[in-house]
Structure formats: structure tokens, C-alpha cells
Design a protein that fits this description.
- The complex is a heterodimer of chains A (about 240) and B (about 400).
- With about 240 residues, chain A is an alpha/beta fold.
- Chain A is about 40% helix and about 25% strand.
- A six-stranded mixed β-sheet of chain A has the order 6-7-8-3-9-10, sandwiched between helices. In chain A, strands 2-1-4-5 form a four-stranded antiparallel β-sheet.
- In chain A, helix 3 crosses helix 4, helix 3 runs parallel beside helix 5 and helix 8 packs across helix 9.
- Chain B contains 16 helices and four strands.
- In chain B, strand 1, helix 3 and strand 2 form a beta-alpha-beta unit.
- The chains are: A alpha/beta (about 240), B mainly alpha (about 400).
- The interface between A and B is medium-sized, with 36 and 25 residues.
Chain lengths: ~240, ~400
């Protein structure tokens, strides 16, 4: 479970997050939706702990990111916006490095890497150096790297960026699969279809504020819009009118 | 501790696979100095030492006008060759470089010589030509000796003691030992050694900080339950390892260079063999973490690989400053100078080259200040890494 509790973050004159609160529950895919520059990445960075909030608190399974950072971080798999790999290492070495940094070793680490290679279908390229990977291959390895310690919570920042249709489908299937294992999945997107196809709950943010937080159907109902896209636009217009 | 090892091993493995890092750390950095140095020294040796042993060849135009002089020169071992004006104009030949230099005896030489007025000789030379300078100087010296011999004979013939014409005489006493004299020439070797140390870690220092950020691999790394100072320490340890390798390769190459370069022909002697190479390594070792921390510190503040490269290019020059200062002011070793890293290593290494004993206190102060500087820079860099601006 991932909790954002009144998170505030300022960069100079810009309010990137103003009292952002929501809960992403276990066994659910929660979508953070918003236009470019709405504060999605900042919110996620506060949640996986590379940024510290000015006020408010991020909690992972009840553990405070501020006070129990080590334990909280160990329960997250994060896939940041630009999830670079080490070009001179093979995919397998990239994954194993993160496993080792998470405290795994020996046969257990080897088995964990093997399981992910099979699950994410990395076999064909995982023993090649990462410098020749396609964008799709890079994202798959970065995802495997985020999953190496079998985290209960997964945070993905625009994971489908730059992927082709087939790769997007595979990724969705994988996320649905991970949900069925009871994990808590939080992903951000500015693509409406992606969120509506996948998410159980949608948090819409604009200008650093939460303007809607509900199941997709409920959002449709509340805004009286025919499609989520229309609802998204309406919610944002309202937010823009009352900043 | 295990995390530290994991980070260290990964950085070492990754950079062993990077050709550019390997080339600059293990070939370019450590070998540039010894190669340049060997080439320069053997050139100096080739220019100076054998020239004195090779017979001097002099082209003379109208040698028949001064038979005594020609006979004297030949008696002094000079190979005299006749230049005939039919071959061409002498001045132009020298200018073109066809002839190194030329001695012309004017038509009135014999008359003036007999009259006791200065008999003029024309020496046509190109003073911008470095290679002929020493030969011209030798010819000058020979003619001067010939002239003073003649002068003494003339004075004696007139009943004057020739010693009256020599009111002052200089006796030179040179206190420099051959090893000390060599330091003037080979003193800049210490800079090459420190340069090799820094070059060994240059690309690694960039790669593990600015490079990691530029590739986008820093953010996921920082989201892991690992302390940032542990990450930084592992990275700087890997950098230090490559720097040590570079230092060892550089010193081995210098040992070889000194074996083949014949400094003794310049009247010099370098106190540098395998044993001194080990001592150099020990003195240079505390400079390794300092250099790694300094480069890591600078690279952490840069936004991109390119920016880091240009700033670290300047860092490579940092150790030259105290060394240049030391040679301009001819600094001798003092304990308080051991407080300045790079200068202290330079002075200690110079001491070894001169074959003088080291003061253990000075060695300890040098190592202590370098390590303290490294620790300070590490703490400062660690602080920066805890800041959010690290994400870029």
C-alpha cells in the first residue's frame, strides 16, 4: 500500500505538489493521470524517496519514507521516467546488480534473476551488453531490475513511453498479472486510453493538485462525461478555473 | 561492507569493458609521460654528448690565404673542407641550409696579419639553427685559443710577460653532484607521475557521477535502500584502483626508460631503479584517494559528461601549479611544504632522485595531509550527493 499524505514540494517559485493525498491499495492498479508538468513525476519521486517533501508524508505499507527510509525503500520497486541501464553490462548483470544492492546473493539471487528472465521473456537478449538494446528491451530489463527483490509495491513513471503497440500490450498483461498476485501498482501516464484500459482507480492531478480520485466509472458519473477523455478535460478545466 | 564491495566490483567490471576508459587509464595516462620523457632526454643526449666526440667539420673558403690557421685547425682534429666560390654564393648556401656554416678568409688577411692589425675572418652562420650552434661555438673556441697563443708569442717577442695580459682568471668549483644536476633535467618526471595518477581515474570519475546521471541510471540507483555515501565510496574506490594501476604502469615504464637513456653521457646520473620505483609508488599512494575524491567532487557538480570532461581537464593541471612554483623559486624540501599535496610528493620524489635520504616525519606529514584532504573532499561530495539537485 502506498500512501501520499498532504505532500507538498516547491522548486524555487514553482509549486510542483500542493497537498497531494491519495492511497494506492494492494491488489489494485492506480493510475496517476495528468498533463505534462502537472506534478506526476514529482509526486512519484516523493513516493519512492529520491525527493524529500517540504511538508506531508509518504508511507509505504505504513512505513514512513522520512523516518524508516531503508525499510520503506526495500518494499518498493521503482521504474523512473528515464530508467537508464549500464551499457557495458549485460541485461543479466544489470538485474543482478540491483539484486545484490537489495541484499540478495548466491543461489537465491541467481534463481530470482532466472525467474524474471523467464517471466518477462528476456532470454533472447539478456546475455548481450545493454548498449545495443531497443527501447522495448531496455524497459523490460529496467522492469525486471525493479522487480528483482519481489517488492510488494511497484511505482512506474510513464512506463509505456516509447514502446510499440505489441510491447505496450505485453506490459499491460504483465501488470495485470502482478496485480493478481496482490501487489500494489502505481503508474503515471498522460495517455487516457492506457489508464482507462488498465486502472482500477484514477487520480487526476493538474497544477500540483489532486482534482479527482475515484474509480473510472465513478469519475464518468460525477462529471457527466461520456468518455474518460472528456472527463479528464472537464476536471482539468475546473481545476484551471479555480487554482 | 558487502554493498560497498558490490558497487566497487560493478564499477571495476563495467570500466574494464570500456575501451576508452581502459585506454586513457592504462595506456595513454601512464605511458605518455615516460615516452615523451624518454624521447626528450635521448634527443638532448644525442644533441650534446656525441657532438663533442665527433670530429668538427669546417668549410673554409680561400683556405690558401691563411695556411697557418688551417694547419692549426687540422692539428686540432678539425676536418677542413675547401669551399670554392664556383659552387655558389656562400651566404645563400648557409641560408638554404646546404652548408651548416662557413669560414671565409678575406683577401687582406695576410697583409693585416703581417702588419699586426687584427686580421679579420668572416664566419657565416645561421644562429636560428639549433643544431649547428654547438659546432659554431667549438670553432669559436678553437680560433680564440689560436689567437691567444699568437698574442702570447707576439708579447713575448717584444719582451712583455704574457701573463700581464691575463689580470683575472676564474676557477670554477661546481658543488652539484651528477645526480643533483640531473634533477634540473628530469625534475618534471614527477609531474608526469602525478599526471598518470589522475589520468588513471579521469574517465571513471566522470562515468560514476556525471555519466551515471546523464544515462538516467542514477535515479533508480538512488531509490534503492542503500546509503548514498556507500555508493559514492564504492565508486571512488574503483576509481582509486585504476589510478593505482596507472601509477604502477607509469613507474614501470620510467624504470625501463631510465635503463635505456644514457644520462651519464650528459654528466648526470639518475637515482631511479626498481627499488626507487617502489618508493615512488609508496609516496604517490596517498595522492591517489585525494585525486579520486577531487575528481569525484568536481564531476558531481557538473550536469553532463562533456561539462565534466572540460572541468576535469583543468583539474589535471592542478598538480602542476605547486610544481611549477617550486621550480621557479627553486624550493628546497621543508617540513611545512609537506602540507601541500602534490608539492610534497614532488619534493619527496625529487629527494629520492637525488639519492638523498627521506625524513620519515616529512613522509608522514605528506601522506597525512593528502589523506586528510581526501577525507574532506569525500565528506563534501557526500553532502552534495544527499541533495536533491544531484538528480539533475
Amino acid at each position: 500500500m502506498i500512501e501520499a499524505d498532504a505532500l507538498c514540494k516547491r522548486f524555487g517559485a514553482v509549486d510542483a505538489a500542493r497537498e497531494i493525498s491519495f492511497v494506492a491499495s494492494d491488489g489494485r492498479i492506480t493510475g496517476l493521470l495528468g498533463p505534462n508538468g502537472a506534478g506526476k513525476s514529482t509526486t512519484l519521486r516523493l513516493l519512492y524517496g529520491v525527493l524529500q517533501p517540504d511538508r506531508g508524508e509518504a508511507r509505504i505499507d505504513g512505513l514512513r519514507m522520512a523516518g524508516e527510509a531503508g525499510a520503506a525503500r526495500a518494499r518498493i520497486g521503482a521504474l523512473p521516467h528515464s530508467a537508464g541501464l549500464y551499457a557495458n553490462l549485460t541485461g543479466r548483470e544489470n538485474i543482478a546488480y540491483y539484486g545484490a544492492l537489495q541484499g540478495q546473493s548466491g543461489a537465491a539471487l541467481h534463481a530470482a534473476v532466472e525467474a524474471l528472465v523467464a517471466r518477462l521473456e528476456l532470454r533472447d537478449f539478456v546475455d548481450r551488453r545493454a548498449k545495443g538494446y531497443s527501447q522495448g528491451q531496455r524497459v523490460k530489463v529496467a522492469l525486471a531490475r525493479a522487480l528483482i527483490h519481489d517488492p510488494a509495491n511497484l511505482i512506474l513513471d510513464e512506463p509505456t513511453n516509447g514502446l510499440d503497440v505489441m510491447a505496450v500490450r505485453n506490459l499491460r498483461a504483465l501488470l495485470v498479472d502482478l496485480r493478481s498476485e496482490g501487489r500494489c501498482i502505481l503508474l503515471s501516464s498522460h495517455v487516457m486510453q492506457e489508464v482507462s484500459a488498465l486502472c482500477d482507480r484514477i487520480v487526476i492531478i493538474a497544477s500540483g493538485r489532486v482534482c479527482a480520485d475515484d474509480a473510472p466509472e465513478a469519475i464518468l458519473e460525477k462529471t457527466g462525461a461520456a468518455s474518460l477523455e472528456e472527463a479528464f478535460l472537464r476536471v482539468q478545466l475546473q481545476a484551471g478555473a479555480a487554482p | 561492507m558487502r554493498t560497498l564491495w558490490t558497487v566497487f566490483a560493478k564499477e571495476v567490471l563495467e570500466n574494464l569493458r570500456d575501451r576508452r576508459t581502459l585506454f586513457s587509464a592504462l595506456v595513454m595516462g601512464p605511458l605518455l609521460g615516460p615516452v615523451l620523457f624518454g624521447a626528450m632526454i635521448s634527443r638532448i643526449v644525442a644533441q650534446n654528448a656525441p657532438a663533442a666526440q665527433r670530429p668538427l667539420a669546417v668549410m673554409i673558403e680561400h683556405g690558401e690565404r691563411a695556411p697557418n690557421l688551417v694547419q692549426y685547425l687540422e692539428g686540432a682534429g678539425v676536418q677542413v673542407r675547401a669551399w670554392s666560390s664556383a659552387t655558389g654564393e656562400a651566404g645563400q648556401a648557409v641560408e638554404r641550409g646546404a652548408v651548416a656554416f662557413l669560414l671565409r678568409i678575406p683577401a687582406d688577411y695576410g697583409r693585416r696579419f703581417a702588419a699586426g692589425t687584427p686580421a679579420r675572418l668572416e664566419l657565416i652562420e645561421d644562429s636560428s639553427n639549433n643544431r649547428t650552434r654547438s659546432a659554431v661555438a667549438r670553432l669559436h673556441a678553437l680560433i680564440a685559443t689560436y689567437a691567444s697563443g699568437l698574442a702570447q708569442q707576439r708579447l713575448a717577442a717584444r719582451g712583455v710577460d704574457p701573463l700581464l695580459a691575463m689580470p683575472v682568471a676564474i676557477d670554477e668549483v661546481d658543488v652539484a653532484t651528477p645526480a643533483a644536476r640531473a634533477v634540473a633535467v628530469i625534475g618534471f618526471m614527477t609531474y608526469f607521475v602525478l599526471f598518470a595518477v589522475l589520468m588513471g581515474g579521469l574517465y571513471l570519475a566522470i562515468d560514476v557521477t556525471a555519466g551515471e546521471r546523464e544515462r538516467g541510471s542514477l535515479e533508480p540507483l538512488l531509490s534503492l535502500p542503500v546509503r548514498r555515501t556507500t555508493l559514492l565510496a564504492g565508486k571512488l574506490l574503483a576509481t582509486s584502483l585504476f589510478m593505482c594501476l596507472s601509477l604502477a604502469i607509469s613507474l614501470s615504464a620510467f624504470t625501463l626508460v631510465f635503463r635505456f637513456v644514457s644520462l651519464d653521457r650528459l654528466g648526470m646520473q639518475a637515482n631511479f631503479g626498481a627499488y626507487q620505483a617502489l618508493e615512488f609508488f609508496a609516496i604517490g599512494l596517498p595522492f591517489v584517494p585525494l585525486g579520486a575524491a577531487l575528481m569525484g567532487f568536481v564531476a558531481s557538480f557538473t550536469r553532463s559528461y562533456r561539462e565534466a570532461q572540460s572541468y576535469l581537464g583543468a583539474v589535471l593541471l592542478v598538480p602542476t601549479l605547486p610544481i611549477a612554483f617550486a621550480s621557479i623559486y627553486s624550493l628546497k624540501i621543508k617540513t611545512y611544504l609537506m602540507l601541500i599535496p602534490s608539492l610534497s610528493q614532488h619534493l619527496l620524489m625529487t629527494q629520492l632522485l637525488q639519492g638523498k635520504p627521506l625524513d620519515p616525519v616529512e613522509v608522514l606529514v605528506s601522506a597525512g595531509t593528502s589523506l586528510a584532504g581526501a577525507a574532506l573532499l569525500f565528506v563534501a561530495t557526500g553532502r552534495h550527493w544527499r541533495r536533491e539537485t544531484m538528480l539533475g
